[in-house]
Structures are given as C-alpha cells and as structure tokens.
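Minutes, methods subgroup
Present: GH (chair), OT, SY

1. OT presented the first of two proteins processed in the latest run. Sequence and structure tokens recorded below as shown on screen.
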Amino acid sequence: MMDTGSSPKLTYFFQRGDDREMYKVPRFSTEDDDSDYGTSSANGVEERLCYLRDGKRKVDFVLVYETVGPSRRGSVPASQLSAVQDKKLMKQEQWRRKFMENLSNAGLDMEEEVVQSSNRKLVYFIKIHATWPVLCHYAEELNMRAPLQAHPNPSVNWSEIALNTLRLPNIMYQDVPCKPLDFYTCPFRKSKIDRFLGSENQETFFSNTQRSRIVYEILSTAMFGKKKKGEVGIDRLVDEGIFSSAFPLHDGPYEVKKNSKSSPMNPRQVLYEYWARWGCWYKYQPLDHIREYFGEKIAIYFAWLGFYTGWLLPAAIVGLLVFLYGVFTMRYNQLAVEVCENPRAFKMCPLCDENIGCNYWYLDDICGYAKLAYLFDHPGTVFYAVFVSFWAVTFLEYWKRKSASLAHHWDCMGFQDEIERPRPEFAARAPFLERNPVTGIQEPSFPRSLRNKRIAAGLGIVFLMISLVIIFIVAVIIYRVLVSIPLFQNATFRSQAQAIANMSGAVVNLFLIMAMSRIYEKLAYRLTSWEMHRTQTEFDDNLTFKVFIFQFVNYYSSIFYIAFFKGRFVGYPGNYTLIINLRNEDCSAGGCLIELAQQLAVIMIGKQIINNAQEIIVPKLKAWWHNKQVKLPKKRRTRWEEDYGLVDYEGLFEEYLEMVLQFGFITIFVAAFPLAPLFALLNNWVEIRLDAQKFVCETRRIVAERAENIGIWFKILNMLAHLAVISNGFLIAFTSEFLPKLLYQYEYNWNLEGYINFTLAYSPNGTLREQCRYRGLRDEHGNHTPFFWRLLAIQFAFVIIFEHVVFGVCRLIDILVPDIPESLELKIKRERYLAKQALQDSDTIMKVAAGVDDFGERSRRMVLDLTAEISNELHPPDPLPPKRSLTSCSMNQHTRDRPNTS
C-alpha cells in the first residue's frame, strides 16, 4: 500500500528496443527526494521540469487518466463491481494498453508517473518524447517548412512607418526579447537536411510547437481497437473517458520573479510580460511570438483582432466628433426650438384609448426628449453613415492584404488539410464503411441522402427557434405598450413615459437575448452532431452557419423592428392598427432614431459587459472546480501537474462570434449611434488582454494548428459590410428626418420654420372628443398628402443612388488595392527560386562533385561556378551567423533593433 502522507510517485519508463517490445522499469520517489527531476533554473530559460527524468529528452506531450484506487484497474474491489462495470473497466484498460503499445511501436519514448490525490484518486501522467528520426519522418510527411536563409527585409507595420516619417515618438513600440527570425523556407526533406539552417542541432532544430504537432499527429492516427469501428486516435479516447486529457506542456511558469528580471525569460514569460499584462494595452502585439508559441490559428485570430481594433480608432474618433458636433449645435436645432418655445401650441392625441383614462397632452411636455433626439439625428450622422459604409469595405480589403502577408510570413500560404481525418464522434457512430477516394483506406461513413434529410430537419428546428425569437419580440412590444399606459396616465412621468418604456424594454430584451443565445448554442451543437458530418471542418462550418443565422436574428431583430417597422403601421385616429386589442406603438415626437440608439446601446454595451464578466469569472470557476475534484498535492508540483490544474481550451468559435456580432452593430446601425465604434474600441482593448491572459495563464497549452486566414468568418464579415451599406441607406432615407427636412427646405422654408406644424396632422372629425394632432403626413380625412408621395419617391431614389455609389466606389477600391502587395509577390518569387536551387539543382551538383556524371572539364567548371553562385545565394555575407540555434535567445540579440510584427 502507498503512504498517502508522503505522496510517493511510481514511474514507468516505456522505450522502444531492438525487438520492438515494451518494457517497464519501476522507480519509487517521494516529494522529499531532492533528485526528483532536478530544480528549475531561476531565470526559467531551461525549465528542467519540462524534460524526462534523464534531463535530456523534452516532454513533447502529456496524457492523463485517473482511477479511483491504488491499482491501475481501480480501487473498487471486484466483488463490489457489477459484471457490466468490471467488463467496461477491463475494456478501457485494454484499449489504453494497446494504444500505448502502438505509440511505442511508432518510435515515441514514454514515461508514466503516478500521483495520489488527497481524495485517494490515482492520477497517471504519461510523458511522451519524440525522437529525432520520428521528428524528421513526420516533418516530411506533414510537409512542414524548414529555414533556408535569414530574411533580409524584416516586416514592419504601417503605423510605425507613418510615425517615423512624421518623426513622432512611437509609444506603441516595445523591444520584445527573443524575437523569432524571418526566413526563406521550403518543405522539409530528410535527404536535404544539411541545406537547412540549424540542422546540426537536433535539440533546437524543431520548435516546441512543431514537436507537439508531430506527436499529436501520431496520437491522432494510433489505433486502440478495430479500425473499422473508428477506434483510432487520442480524441476518441478522451471522448470515451479512457484518458482525462491530452496536452503539450507550457514552457515553464508565466510569472517572472522579481530577483530574476535581468535573466532571460522563457517564451511563456515573454508573452505574459509583453502581451498579456494589462499594462501592455497600448503596445503592439508580438504576433511572431504568439505564432511561435501557440501556432498560426491562434496568431491569425489575434492578428485580425488587433487589426480590427486598430481600424476602429479612426472610426471611433470620427464618431465622437460627429456626436460632439450634435452637442455643440443642439441649441440651434429649429425643431426643438419650435417644440419648446411654443407652450400649449400643439395639443396631441392620447397615446391609448380615451375610455381607459388616457388624456390629451401637449408636445412641449417632451421638450427635453426632442432636444436629446437631435444628438442622434442631425446632418453629421448622415455623413457618418456614409463614412462607415466606406470604412467597412475598405477595412476588409486591407485585411486581405494583411492576411496574405501573414500567411506568407508564417509559411501558411495555400495551406489546406487535404487528408482530414473523420471526427472521433463521427467514427464512433457511423454505421457503414467506405473507401476514402484520396487515401484508398476503408473509413467509417454515413449515407449522404440521410445526412441531407437530417440537415433539412435541423434547418426546420432553426426556423422554429427563429419564430420563437419573433414571438419574444412581440412580447417585448406588448410589454412596452402596457408599461407606457400607466406612465402616460401619471402627469409626473408623462414626459418620460416613452423613454422609460423603451429603456426598460431594451433591458428585458437583452436578458431574453442572452438566455436564448445560451439555449440555442447547445441545441445547435447537438443538431450539428446529429447531422453526422465527417470532418471537423465540415462540422465547424455547419455549426457556424446555424449559430450565426440564429444569433443574427436574435440580436438584430428588435433593432431592425425599431429602425424600419416601428411607427409605420400605426394608423390614425378612428382607424388604429391593433395588437391583442392594444394600439400598435408609435415613434415619439423626436423620431424613431433616438429609440434605435437606446436599443442599440443597451444591447451592445450590455452584451459586452456580460461577456467580459463571464470571461473573467468562468475560467476561474472551472479551474477551481477541476482542482477540487482532482485535489493534487500542492507541494512542489511538477510542470505537468500544474498544467493539468488549468482549464481546457474551448476553441475560438465564441471569440469570433462575439467580434462578428460587434462588427454588425457598429456598421449596420451606426447611423443611429455614432458612439458605437468608440464603445467597441474600448471593449476590444479589454478583450485582447482577457483573451491573452486566458491563453497564457488560465488554459492548458493547445496543439499548434495551421491556418491561412480566418476562414468562413471573412465571408460573414463581407456579407455584413454589404448589408451595412443597404441598411444605412434605408436608415437615412426612411428612419431619420434628413430627407423630409431637406424636401421641406426646398419646397417651403430653408430655415425649417413651421416644420413641426407641417408634419403633424389633425385628427378626423368625430373620431375623438376633441380635435388633436398626431404624427403623420395626412389630410383631414386621414389620407396621405401629395408631399408624402413625393417624399416616398425621393426616399427610394436616394437608397438606389446611395447603394450604387458606395458599391461602385468600393469596387474601385477593390480594383486599385491588390489582395497581395507587390513587395510580397517579390518575396514569394525569391523564395521559390531559392527552394528550387536548394532542393533540385543540388542533386546534379553533388553528383558532379563526386565524379558520377561523365562531363568534360568545361562542364565541370560551369557546375562549380553554379555551385559557388548558389552558395552565395543561400549564405550571403550577413552579420547574422549562418547556422545557430533557431530558438536561442542569444541568436535574436542581433535583431532587437528590428521592429515587431503587429
């Protein structure tokens, strides 16, 4: 029996011998054993706890599983187990053992260590190391790229160039240590390994992310059962509960001790000190460091988020100036002057039926509301709507250029996973086998016709949920009507009745939206799983489509209603439109645009606050609950124990969805709320730090994934940008008072004198006890006036002209701004030339040098000249040493004067 007080560890070594058999060497140690793995250095550069026990072989991956007793098969006695439970435990143990045997046969070195937790659970950590031959073999199989030559032109960003040109100090720049170098690269080949920089150092030639990616490839393809049943890969084992988790290790702790500030830091500490800390909110993101540590998929997300946030700055500044223009010119608003300086001039009709106690009221009762409405409906907002329409399309055009530059810089241009494996859940549930047309291997399959039927049924459920959202919108409309009636009956709250009803309705709508969002996301995940999509890419794309369609309706439907439908179908005294015997709500005398601004502000800002609070609290609660369940000893934890106490990485889906919905808020409805980009900018400054801290401090290290761009999200952003042009055109034409005032100025009075009186119609005789005024361009019989029809024609003409002009200019921008910069095209050609010389011409050169080919003396001299020329191309005179450790901080000291990629 094991002494729980000393928490001993039982370690097994799994190695590959000449007879390809696995053997074990047990070793006992306790927490008080000073020789256990050595001690980590103070500066954190060499974290010995990231190595196997010999201190030489890196831990490239860790597998974890738990049992509930001292034995490997569980602590519960067999007599207390049912036959089914005992059979399940035996099957799990059989799968686990066969899986580890296959890993050993694949050439991986393994160590197993057991830790007894406080709640008498045994936690098994299997540490995996990939040998040099395995790394070389799979690097070629995975088409990884290796460095040929240091890049002569380091990447810079446009803001740094602009500030340098203007000779202004750049407060955003920071000198990040250990910056990864730029290289010309080509696909790795074992036969040409001597051509690659740093190949003589086997410890550092492959980075930690590359090593973990290679090991994950082996883990994902290793069998543990019958291949026909899809019993393949670590993901399936984790889903089945055979393993609790599988993850690569972090490169040491993220905290930097005060007494070691001057010492070199590990990559995780560099990311924390120069990226994840709140004090770095205004600094460039070290994208090359992020890519080096987390891989291209994570780096491209932060590159897009930083690029988007940078572009929000001019939009926020212009929006703030437009809002301040409204504040400073508010006193000159002729409409507010006409309302406020003519007391008792306009007797308005009751907003509800007279028989339930609603009285007549006067327009000057809402004097303050009319003044406030001017802030969101003045000529500046029209200009801003046009500006944001161009801004959105231009932003996407320049992101395509940035994305192409990053894809080439990170060796991901043209990347696609041509042989994508079936999802573990699909493999477990697929009822048939089918030959893969690419690999020719029998794989689990699901009939396409049955999948299409399930997709159609899933879409039906999506539309059912959308109908439920519309029902909730109607409920909120009824709520606003019911709340406004008692407020309007009270003389004290009469002037604020509509404002209170609208604001409280927006808050209620926000809570309904958030609740529906959580419910639907779980439902959409289940639906997409039920549809049986073969690959993870197909699954993600279908899930993204379902969730975005629903969230679009969920978040934007109430805003669309206020923008384009509220107040359009009210009717007039004697002929009102009713909903459940209640009069349909009308816009206030200040117009619907201020109500739209209220709704947009509450939903957008409230959503941001709730999401940020969740991102701060939820990971900490998950980590606390996980550690409470496991209860590992706190004294002298190893690196893998520390990382196991962190939470799992949950993907970038929620992060992208949040930002895409925000992009819709600030583009589609920006004419109503010019401050929306400013609030988005403030939120994104916080969002970048929260996400950075989550990845660096709170989650286990993820397996580095490659990605060329942001994928399907760019198509969604492009759709929203085009929808924003159409929406802003209709907002200016039909919701704002811009065109009605412009037509009135042209036909009647340029100073807008009498405009309020002109837009208020008289109630038809006999419909009410007293004659009163209501909002509408109607005559004494309730019919629309000729001015209304002229205005309607102008409004439609404006939308068509506005849309064609904006789309035309955007198309011109698309033509003038190439997707790939000219400098990048030259780099691509240069890289192809070097790769061709290094991997093809060298064959002939080496043969000639060895005397294999029977050439004459002249041919030999020509080949020798060509050899010298290629040598100069591959190794030009440069202050950088030609071959050194590619991950060493000392190598990068020569590049500290080079700007960071941001």
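2. SY then presented the second protein from the same run.
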Amino acid sequence: MSNGFKFFSGSSQGNPSSSDPVRKNLVEQNAQQNGFKTSVFRILQRFMSANKIDGGSRTEAEEKVYSWLYALAQSEKDIVFEYVRSTERGLSFTEAERRLQENGPNVPVEYTFPSWWHLLWNAFFHPFNIILIVLSALSYIANDATNGCIMLGLVFISVSLRFYQEYSSSKAAMRLSEFVRCPIKVQRCAGRVVQTELLVQVDQRDVVPGDIVIFEPGDLFPGDVRLLTSKHLVVSQSSLTGEFGTTEKTADIREDQSTPLLDLKNICFMGTSVISGSGTGLVVSTGPKTYMSTMFSNIGKQKPPDDFEKGIRRISYVLISFMLVAVTVIVVADYITSDDLTESILFGISVASALTPQMLPLIVNTSLAKGALAMAKDRCIVKSLTAIRDMGSMDILCIDKTGTLTMNSAMMVNHLDSWGSTKEKVLCYGFLNSYFKTEQKYPLDDAILAYVFTNGYRFEPSKWTKVDEIPFDFTRRRVSVILETDLNVKHKSNHTLNRILITKGALEEVLRVCTYIEHVDRGEIATFSEEDHQRILNMGEDLSNDGLRVLGVAIKRLETKRSSTGIYDETVECDMVFLGLISFFDPPKDSAKQALWRLAEKGVKAKVLTGDSLSLAIRICKEVGIRTTHVVTGPDLELLNQDSFHETVKRSTVLARLTPTQKLRVVQSLQTVGEHVVGFLGDGVNDSLALDAANVGITVDSGASIAKDFADIILLEKDLNVLVAGVERGRLTFANTMKYIKMSVVANVGSILSLLIATLALGYEPLTPRQLLTQNFLYNVGQIAIPWDNMEDDYVKTPQKWSLKGLATFILWNGPVCSLCDISDLLFVWFYYGAQSEPLFRSAWFVEGLLMQTLIIHLIRTEKIPFIQEIASWPVICSTVVISAIGISIPCTSIGYVMGFTTLPLSYFGFLVVLFIGYFTVGQIVKRVYILVYKTWL
C-alpha cells in the first residue's frame, strides 16, 4: 500500500488539492505514522497483543485499505486521478509496464509453495518416528531384523500419509490466482507528440493501479476500482458478502465515512462481477493491496494447533523420559545380577521396544481411513483424515445460512392489499407484470409465476398483449409493463381505454409514484393520503422484520391516443393507483431442523454466521429451532473492544451482516478464548477465511472452487443430517484411538515395572530379549482389529477432547493393576513351582504377560462389565482368541523349544483362570471408583 500513498510525499506537480480536507487528513495521518512516538507505540502495542484476537478492530493492513478506499470514495474524480498518479486518458504502455514491474502481478495473495523436501522433513521429524527409528536400529544391532523391519515399515506408513496430506493441502492457496484470471478491457494512451487513446485487452494479472478499465455485463473487476462513469450499473458482491442478490453502483456520488465499506456506491471491489449496465473505472489498488487481499492474507496461518497431535508429541516425550530411566535401571540391575554387559544391553533394548506403542501410527491412520470410507458411503468426501477426529471433538458448528439452512430460492408467501388482507387482484397484476417482463428476469418473478401456476389461478395472460416495457434500474428500483387487451373498459370520463400500466418494485419507490389508492373490496379509488402512506410503510416494515422481502404493486389505465406509437418512457410512471404488496421468503430445508436437533443432542451447538440481514437470519433461525435471544450484526461488532467482542461472540447465536474477515475473527475467538473445537459450514468465496481457520472446514460440492480447496470435508448433498453421521464417525474414531493409546501405555508401563521387580527378585532376566520381542510382536499384531471395534451409545453423545492430564491420571490408576497381576503370577510360580527352573518361569511369564496385554482391551474399552454387560465386536473377539491361542501353544511347540521355553503344567492354566478372574474383578472395581471420582472413563 506504500506505493499507493507515494503522493503524500509532496513530490507531485503542484498542489491543487491542498485545500481538500480529505487529502489533508490523510497527509497528517501518514505523517504521524512516520513519527518516532507513534512507531514505538505501535511496536509495543503489537508486542503486547501478540497471539491475541483483537476483538472487532481491524489489522494495520486492513486499516490502510479501508482508509485508502474511503478517501477515494469521498473525493472528486480529478482528485482521484492525482491520488493514483494517472490521467483521464489512462496510462501509457511504458508507464504501465514500469508499474507492473514495481507492483508485481495482480494476484490477491503472493503464496510461496513449499518445496517437497521441506514437507517431507516436517512429516519425518516427529518424536515418535525418531523413537521407532532408533529402536529399529538397535533391533538390527540385537540381531532381531524382523522387529526392526516392522518398526521401519510403521515409520514409512506414518511419514507417507502425512506428507501426502500436507502436499495436497498446500496447493490450495495457489489456486487463488486463478479465481479472477480473465481478459480485461483497458484504456491506454500512445504517441509521443499527439497521444491517442486505445482500448486494449490485457490479462488480469497485468492490470496496474492507474489503469482505466471498461466493463460490461459478465465482467469481473480486476482490482479495487473507483467508478468514473456508470449507466444502470448492477453488481454482484456475493463473492465477498455471501448475500443473495445484487447492489447498485453509481459514479455520480461522493460517499461519507458513515457508509459501510461494502455499501460504498462508487467503489467496486476485486472479484465482484457486473450483472447489468456498463461503465468505466479507475483501478486504485491491485494484488495484495486490495480489499480481497485482506480476506486471504492469513490463509494457511490461522488454524489452531491440533490438540491430539500435541498430545501425541507430549506422550512421546514422556515415554522417552520414562524409557531412559527405566531402561537404565533395568540394564544396571540385570548387569549386577548376571555380570554380562552385552546381554544386559540387549535386554534393555528389548524393554525399550516393548515400552513403545509401536502400532500407534497404524492404528490412528487405519481408524481415520475407516472413518473416511464410512463417510464416503454417506456421500461425504474427506480431504483431510484428521478432520474426522476433529469432528468427534467439535462442540460448536458455525453455519452460513444461505443454501445450508434454506433452499436458496425465493418462495412467494402472500399478496395483500393496503390494509393487510389477502386479495387476488394484487396477485393478478403482479403475475401479469412478471409474465410479460422480458428484460432481467429475477428469481422473484419465477416465484410469482410458480405460485400462480401451482395454486390453480387462471389469469388468462393470452388475453393480453404486451405493448412496451420500462426495464428495471437501480435508480427507480421498479419495472413497468404496458399491456393491451381486447376488452373495452369504461372510465368515468367515458373515454374508451384498453391499455394498462402495471408497475412492480421496491415498496418505497412504488409508493413514490402513487397518487391514488384502491379499496379492492368496494371497487373504489381514493386519494392517497399521508395516513395511507405511513400505514403501508409500517406494514412493509413489519413484514421485513419477519424476514420477508416485500414488493409493491400499482396500476394505471392509459388512453390509446396518448401514444400512437406505443413507446413509453419513465415519465408515464406517475399518478398511479396503489393496489397492495407481495411478500417472499427463502424457505428453510425440511431436514435442517431435525439435523440441528440431532446435533444439539450430541452436544454440538449451532451458531449462524451470515452476510444476510439480521431480520432474515432471525426468521430462518426461528423456523429451524435456533435460539434468537442473543443476536448481533457485523457493524455492531466493529464498535466493541476486545473483551466485549469475545463475550458477545460467546453469547450470540445469530451473527448477521458479517464480512469475511469478521467471520474469521468470530471463529478464532471461539477457538482461542472460548477453547472450543469449531466447525464451519459454508460454500462461498466469502467463507474461505473461516473454512481455513476452523478446526473442521465443511463445504458442499456445488460451492465455490476456493471454498472446496480450503475445506476439509466436502458434502455431496446440502443436508446437515450427513454431518450428524460424520460427528458419530468422528467420535467412534477418536474412541478407538484413545482405547489403543490408554491400553498400550497402561499395559506397557505396568509390564516394564513388573520386569524391573522380577529382575531384582529373581536375579536373572524374566524373559530373554528374543522372548520379550516375540511377546511384544504378538501383542501388537492383536491390536490391529481395534479400529473395527464398536462403541457404547453414551460415548458418542458428547464431544470428546484430548487431555494429557487425564491420560497421566488414567495410567496412575490402572497401571498398578497390571503390575499386580504380573507380581501375583511371579509369586505363584516362585512358591508353587520354585524359581530354579528358568525355562519354566519364562514360559509362565511369557504366557501370562501376553494374555494380560491381550485381554486388557476388553477391560479398557467399556465402562461396563466386560463379556457380561458389553461385548466387543467380532474382529476384536477373534483377534483376542487367535493371539491368546498362539501365545499358549508356543511353549508346547518346537518354536518354543528353540526360544528356550518348556511345556507348562495344566495346573498353571487353572491358576491363570483364577488370576484373570481376579484381575478383571480388581480392574472393574478400580474402574468404577475412577468413574465416580472423575465422571469419565475413556
């Protein structure tokens, strides 16, 4: 933006605008910003407010854009040319080329695509991967190539999946440059002596500040533009606001500071398009200095850190610390008892491998992939697998109203006379206007025609002939048709009349041309009084407050002799008779209310974030069951300080007239201050900021391409019920992942403590390195079935969040239960069989440890009594049976003989039955006490 303000330096030729108060204000403001005090203040302010959401206030970059555009909107055209250092003839080709070199390509965001090796390094450099690689290397040193290959394979799967996801998502911002890429008609000047004005087509990327652009219907504005001329110019700003409909723009106006930025009539914004009309404009900002750039400048930087990933990293650090301590103690203890350093080190490596939850990457990614396949059957495309897990933690869903809660189409509601009574005559003339109108058909016309045809009205349009049409424009805001019929109608003056003027449009503009009012019941026409005027305006306001859009209808009978040619102009719209008004509504979807109710049952609160009007948003929310006791608008949010902003966002359920940046700040406030996991459902370009920042960005297949780029999940149907299924899938995925994490960490920590106690008590290794690694391998293979486990209905009713503190508490409560089971086995073998036979003890310890680690999933996976009140899924049952059978049979086979095992007596298996009954009994008691204290389990 500094280039756009170079004229403040005082180097311009002359100073014809020195008396202009707008320019003077900007000059003083810019000078103050260069002052030492202001600079220091800004640095301190930025330092103190780092990592905070600054309420409803704007960033420094946004303030520059706002100040620049407001200054131009308030200035005369000749001053605007001076501001951007251009002329009424346009720029020369040489100057345009120089500015292009100076300002760079005209794209809204300069995005640097990260190199593949950088993404690969980020995916690889993770504490958990480092642990597995180190242990794999140590396994090769210990001559256990099989276990080493398995751990390297797990690292490869984890790194590959993460690299693919990040590489795909990083391409999204690159497509922003394609959004507004198109040929632009520009006026340039050429010639050394006599300059000639030329109209040329240039690529949108080559447009520079100071260019004069010419636009027609269908054209996109290549930058922020100050209008120079306009003729019936109608522009769609839905790409920025998300609002359904169009807005009028005109060059012949000077705005003031009180007008909202997007409501400025003489400013058009990059990315918006021309619906009708034509004109010329001066490009005042391009590329990263446009209003659109303030929307997308923070793309890719706003998403909060993933609590689950942070938790995994912290677990890795805890495991590394515990591993270093435990392995060191075990190696020292084993060396003291065995006096064999090499064997003690190998045993320590085996213990470290057993302590690591090696299957965690595979379990997590398998659970997520399974959830993605299940959601695909529900007509959902999952772009980011981690979004499934985040959906399970989501507790607030922000919804953009248009096309999500509503049908995104107009539906006619009623046709009322001037006293609020339903009258068919009002509908008849409104229908004839829409039926014969040919220029600029709007959805409201289709709604009137559909209402008439579907309700069986017979207005016989074939009996009418169209004579002329006065098309809609945004100055008059109404459309008129002149019709002729064969039926002769007698007027009071006995003139024969067979032509009629029917006008339909904005209520205020229709009332402006009315002199009479018709009493439809009595068939009388009376003079239009001030009382009538106020009553009709109040009625229209009441309907608007109910979320309805209102059009007025008026008629006027014409004499044939007044225009023998049948050509009329706007002057004929006078002394008309007001008939009544027609109301319209964008109806809510039938499925929306049910889906929102189901989400509320599962602890997901809905907030509506829309660019539409507050009254319309309230009407829709009432229809679908969203509370409207606390509502706020974007302009109101702009006036709040930081604390008030956060409190208002937290309390409000309906936030209307929001700009894209305000949607972003609302999402960030909910995340950082409210500590919520936020989902955002939107389908427009104006939703891209919020989609990118939300924990879960959701859009629909028919949404804007940029919205689909930044979304994590794409719905193939605009149905919120699909999200309900996604929330359930997310919570199931989260639950199965937490089952494995809690189960593996509890079992591994308990087993390592048992190994340490047994080593000190026995004087020799309770298991050799090979035996320990085999036990660990079989146990890990048995956990592959966990992603296919089911979950209790009560668990998926509430949002689930990661808690490292809760995990530590869980381990402290349940880890000793595993150690108690192992120590009981140690004491039984010691006193009943004697501990002199190392093969017998190691065989018993191997079988008991494997069975305990295999069966613990059934104790951990449910709050209820396992095998009695709750049974696992058949894949988990089969896995338990198969691994247990293999573990029991190994000591009886030749493989067990080679590994140093011996056959166990039958009495030991009887003891194991009693031992595991006691284990489940004690574990269930601990579970119930834990739930009683902490009110949760998984």
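Chair's summary of item 2: The radius of gyration is 37 Å.
Next meeting: continue with the remaining queue.
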